Amino acid sequence: MRGAATVVLPPAVHEPLTPRGTAERCLESARTSTTPGTGGLPEIRQWLEERARVNEFTTTPVPFAQLDGWRFTDDTGDLVHRSGGFFRIRGLDVSGADGPVPHWSQPVIDQPEVGVLGMLAKEIDGVLCLLVQAKMEPGNINVLQLSPTVQATRSNFLRLHGGAATRYLEYFTEPGRGRVLADVLHSEQGGSFYRKRNRNIIVETDEDVVVHDDYRWVTVGQLHALLREDNMVNMDARTVLSCLPLSAPAAAFDDAAQSETAAIQSWLNNAKSRSSLVSRLVPLASVDRWRRSEDAISHEENRYFQVIGTMVRASNREVTSWGQPLIAPRGRGVVAFLVCRTRGDVEVLVHARAEGGTPDVVELGPTVQCVPDNFHGLPAGQQPRYLDLVREAAPGDILYDTLLSEEGGRFYQAENRYLAVGVDDEVRSSTPPPGFRWMALRQLYALVRHGGYLNVEARSLLACLQPMV
Amino acid sequence: MRGAATVVLPPAVHEPLTPRGTAERCLESARTSTTPGTGGLPEIRQWLEERARVNEFTTTPVPFAQLDGWRFTDDTGDLVHRSGGFFRIRGLDVSGADGPVPHWSQPVIDQPEVGVLGMLAKEIDGVLCLLVQAKMEPGNINVLQLSPTVQATRSNFLRLHGGAATRYLEYFTEPGRGRVLADVLHSEQGGSFYRKRNRNIIVETDEDVVVHDDYRWVTVGQLHALLREDNMVNMDARTVLSCLPLSAPAAAFDDAAQSETAAIQSWLNNAKSRSSLVSRLVPLASVDRWRRSEDAISHEENRYFQVIGTMVRASNREVTSWGQPLIAPRGRGVVAFLVCRTRGDVEVLVHARAEGGTPDVVELGPTVQCVPDNFHGLPAGQQPRYLDLVREAAPGDILYDTLLSEEGGRFYQAENRYLAVGVDDEVRSSTPPPGFRWMALRQLYALVRHGGYLNVEARSLLACLQPMV
User: Fold this and answer.
1) Which one of A177, B47, B121, B325 has the lowest number of neighbouring Cβ atoms within 10 Å?
2) Contact residues on chain A for B265, CB-CB shorter than 8 A
């Protein structure tokens, strides 16, 4: 028999009547332009300026002879790191391609390991936020861009560089550490990488997260706004963001949409079957029409890109100085979707692109994806399809137009102009040439949750166009 | 001003108020056990007996020296066809595998081209029917099995064999010829093929189809019934059938299911990241612990399989006689899912399997997939997980148990026992060992519409278990 005791009630819990779904929470975050507790876009810009001021970071092109830790092998001429890790510059022989040049060889980045691009998510005062990093990369035209929480190759996180551990990596490599919102194996640039893929991961945590100075919680809406600023959100952040489950498949997937998915799969598989493109790695020394000087490996007509050496000094990286090769493109690229909104759904014109380094030969790419300078002097019939339409678009038809960089860890000042150009029903009604097909954006947002469908340029644009759906 | 004219009314059309969706039509076909106009299972059996009687087909094992059109190359010892086409028997070197044998080499089928497995569909009196073929294959234990409408390698349909064209192929290679219900690039056996994939296609036509004697329309329900007969429905028909859109993703895909899909993708990607398995093609002559005699290539302990030569005579094939190698397994395999139905959803225990020839190293496989004889004499700790549970299952717990053959075009009398064994919540509640995970069947039916997730043995079982969902 016990005496009277104080009854302790559990604290009142105000749960919503229906738990909100992931898509709903992502959409709410997309409509939110202020991070609870830490402010809006002005505060983000202040923080970025401060990070740029506090951290030192310099990239200096150097002759290959001064490229610390790297050498050309005697037998193949490949450019390799002394650890055998990271990546190699090798040769790629491509034959059976469509178009005026069916056969060529070129330098290529060979990195036969799967990297991790991880974005940590957490609800802050009920708003789903993403932890971005103010990351300095050697190839960045403006040194610092917003990156995912983690951006690591296997070599990095095995710490082949002998430096510090990668922050927050445990959320993406320890199973069960959080709730997985996305985890998709996606390709990188098929024009520069040989079958390289990364895991695009978004993990939500309920844990308390210590936010280091170079990191910051942002809303999806803030990221969408920042995607409209030149060279602000890096490629890795864009491809991870494209996988965010903003729409519930249940809503998008009626019977008609399912039929259309099968039709798209069939169209892509037909393109793969039809393609006779064959690519294989060859010694860098055997690559035809490319010349190696003391400073660069260049095409004999100065087209496409150069491979250069750089020395990097950084105050806030796992190691504070290192040498590495980078791919330096010639000229600025154009990456564009034609968009049509006259038929209910928002539709984009997709191009089935076969590239030498694409893991499975063909992926769905944007309507236009090229460096116009590479086509300089060629007749009209050999210019990229729809490039003229994109270039001559009336200002009122331009729905999106921003300079975005390719990944600064591999590319030197690789800036492309990303566009979305609205077209009328007349363009939409004409039969597109072989290899092009109109698809509903919501179809692409469903497909991007699986690997092997969309190339990295298309995924970048998908991230930028999320506010449109 | 015209005179009175006879008014011709269009014929009355009785369309349903709502057009039926594909999933609904597939489900209706699954509930139908009679093909309109041509009868039920007894008529199908009669037809099969007649086809077996009318067509002559013999397979005779022969020494390699008598294997018409094939030879071992001088430099590598690979077994190749004189055309350079079809396939080659090469060597595969596998290292970094889990388990007691981390490194081995073995013969492997190398066929670096994508085949077509096509099932033609058509509504007959409102019932969706599939056109199956009574196909004789050299390795079939019973000569004749039900196959998809088209089962062709690229070499076949390019007619490298110099024979007749493949019937009905145009429905699967000419875009726009019909309505695509499924078109998925799926892998074949990772234990015997090097990264081989096929397009699994289902195309629905409205055209009149001339049905050749060796072909017949069947309902999905009839196929499900025939899948319960030993060695009746061949492997190619099973994997294509597994892709049939029996359930609408809209119904299956609420927010919770979407989260679970991401979790499964993450689990699979983790398994890929963790796997250190590396496999590469090597000369057949360099394969260790395998011996070539006049009649066969065999493992020194007579385990696993043999490569043998056969001469084939057929009255109803594109060419009427040919020689070819076949893979002859040692002993009968066991392929099984543990099934639990205590938690609302029908769930199966999936095993993330790394195999030497799997295109992307790891795929989701059945709970058990092994040839028990290969483990003869090994201690209990090295026996395949859950094999004992499957073998000792009480009759009342066996939900499916049928002998099914692997593809008779590559395998000689390769018969496996396919099972589904029900388990209680006690088994379901215990934490499965690493590499195993319970998944809802409906999740797998959604994933099988994309390539790279499910291996061919799991897909076979998915086809057999369709009536369960």
Assistant:
1) A177
2) 180, 182-184, 449
